[in-house]
Amino acid sequence: MPRAGVAVSVRPDFEPATQVGSFALKHVVDAWRARDLEITDLAGADAVREKVLDAFNVHDPVLYFMVGHGNEDLMTGQEYDNLFWTCDCRALVGRVIVALSCVTAARLGPDAVGKGARCYIGYDKDFTWIMDVVQDPLLNLYARGFFEAVLEILYRLMAGDTTAEAYRASMDVWNYWIDYWTRSTDPSAPLVLQWLIHDRDSQKLIGDAMATVTVAEIIPALWWAFQAVGAVAPIMIVAAVLGTREAEKAGILV
Amino acid sequence: MAVTEKISRLERFIAENPALADVPAMIVAGRPITPREALNYLRAGTYVNEVLTGLRALGIDDPWILCEEFYRRQAAARPELKAYSLGFVPSMSPAESLRHVKARDDEGRKIVEAYAGMLSFMKTRVG
Fold it and tell me: Which of A196, A213, A220, B82 could form a disulfide with A63 if both were Cys (CB 3.0 to 4.6 A apart)?
């Protein structure tokens, strides 16, 4: 069974679009590590199927997230290396997948979930954004909104939200930026707005809406529960002993 | 609805949604026009019936023609901005997008569909 709190990320960077996506997902990789959660980050030349399957075999992650070119039936990695495709999703069984890739939610995503993937969040049309210079999109005025909406899904999952909660939070971010650009007087605002609306409407959640990927919030809760039980246990024991003695005196217990 | 009321509504729409003010949204006298241009016509008392019809039927006019006009304007204004994509056409400038729209090919169809989505959004804001 895939291990909670464990992730594999795939970040090809062989041309501008994947470079931008790779910059964006690096923020999530860093945040994941900062929370002392386990992650295997396959970037650049490592963003290929062979390494992804190895990572799955060794680490068995509950969360798999990626950026890469895609179509209805295929998601790709570095230099268009085929990662997963419709009818070849066995390795995704039990996992939560977040795919920043074009159109994979049209057929690949439903196929993966139909064959046992826990949940698939992706896009059923071309994921498209506006940019004037290739850089970290969170630093770019035009691209920032697109990628903040996508990263919100992963940050929320990392924080323990369900897939539905993460998805809804992402929608809020899409709507925030749509409203922002609707009110903008930048001459390029309609160009940005067109694709924000398009991408938001193509974002899909397929499968288990109640899936979570971390146990980070459960472990501290259990620890505190044990501490609380430990604190009251002596009192309960004394009360039990006193109560027993009183019962004996009263002849209730022999 | 009285023309004066329609003018007020358009003025409010443009003030609250400046990004949509210059998006070609209807065809009047055979020409794609924007909400700002529609307002100017109404104020000038020209093509009033055509503009009112166009506003009522927002989103009905041929999106290919409207989208072509939009990208013609964008190609002239901000040629350096690109649309990047994680499909198999990784990037397109406004001029390249215009070529696809004019060619009415698969990429053009995707662009026009996205444009039609923005017109639907505009319709919800015009009211």
Answer: A213
Dihedrals phi, psi of B44, to nearest 5 degrees: -80, -10
Q: Do B85 and A188 touch (CB under 8 A)?
A: no
Q: Among positive and negative, which fits the CA dihedral A185, A188, A191, A195?
A: negative
- Residues in chain A within 8 Å Cβ distance of B118: 190, 193-194, 197-198
How confident is residue A216, by pLDDT bands cut at 50, 70 and 90? very low
Task: Give dist(CA B12, CA B7) in Å, integer.
Answer: 9
Structure tokens at B7: 């003018």
Q: Where are the beta strands (DSSP E) in B18-65?
A: 26-28, 31-33
Q: How big is chain A by its Cα radius of gyration, in Å? A: 24
| Beta-sheet pairing, A82-85 with A119-123 | unpaired
pTM of the model as a whole: 0.88
CB-CB neighbors (< 8 A) of B114 in chain A: 128, 194-195, 197-198
ipTM score: 0.95
Q: What is the pLDDT of residues A126-178, one digit of tens each?
A: 999 999 999 999 999 999 999 999 999 999 999 999 999 999 999 999 999 99
Q: What are all long-range contacts of B40-49, with beta carbons under 8 Å and residues at least 24 apart?
A: B42/B3, B42/B6, B42/B7, B42/B10, B43/B7, B48/B3
Write out chain A residues lying below 8 Å of B84, CB-based. Answer: 16-17, 20, 128-131, 143
